[in-house]
Amino acid sequence: MIMPIILFGVGVMMLLLAYLIGVRKMYDLFSGINTATAEQKAKMDLPAICRATGTGFAVIGMAFLIAGGLLSAGVDWAPEAAFAVLFVTVWIMIVYVQRFDGNNFNEAGCPNKRYYLAVFGISALLIVVLVLETGLVAATINSPKISFAEEIMEIKGMYGTNIAKSEITGIVLIDQPVSFSLKTNGSAVFGAYKGNFISKQYGPVLVYVKESSLPWICILRSGGKTVLISQQSSVETKKLYDELRNWINS
To answer: What's the average model confidence in pLDDT over 103-122?
Structure first.
């Protein structure tokens, strides 16, 4: 229940900022405005900047509150969606408010270097974030690559690990998805889970599974977390299960 509380807390904080800036017009909360000279402030449309910024914070706040509710209801990809809204809204907000700062334009009304630095700088940052987010989603959805050595099973890719044959106490196929109550260090998007979670059935687990790809392989270990694995299809998962069983018995 920690993550939903964090999401609700961020949402409330964003809505508070939306009220203070958008309604109360407390533009001194902006570091750039607070440190500007009187001449620079005279060229700014401060009410418009406050309205635009307050609206952006309100959108972010509502997104985090909704994400907290969705996560409480079991929608595991809600935090990732909230942060996507955060980055996109911040980008739009920062780019949009530049038009209300007269310091960004020359006497002819054309944008100057300061305007382009702000717009392209924020745009470049957003692109980097989106690329990283896309890579995270792809890495979570893709099934892990698994190889077997004489005494070691290697799970490759994101959150990869090695499992010694000697620590495996049993393997089973489970036909129903395991419920995860908390994500401690992992990724969950669109019904795919990868990383470290807390499960109701097995406690702390290391998972590489998809809800749509049953059955799952459950590897029980002595002195280590239970591992849950699935592949792209049930046929591939059962094939991996047979390989794992033959490796253990060899």
So the answer is: 86
Domains, the chain, ranges and CATH?
2-141 (no CATH), 145-249 (2.30.29)
C-alpha 101/C-alpha 44 separation (Å) is 4
Kindly indicate the confidence band of residue 182, based on its pLDDT and cuts at 50, 70 and 90: low
Residues 6+ apart with CB under 8 A from 52: 93, 96, 97, 100
pTM summary value: 0.66
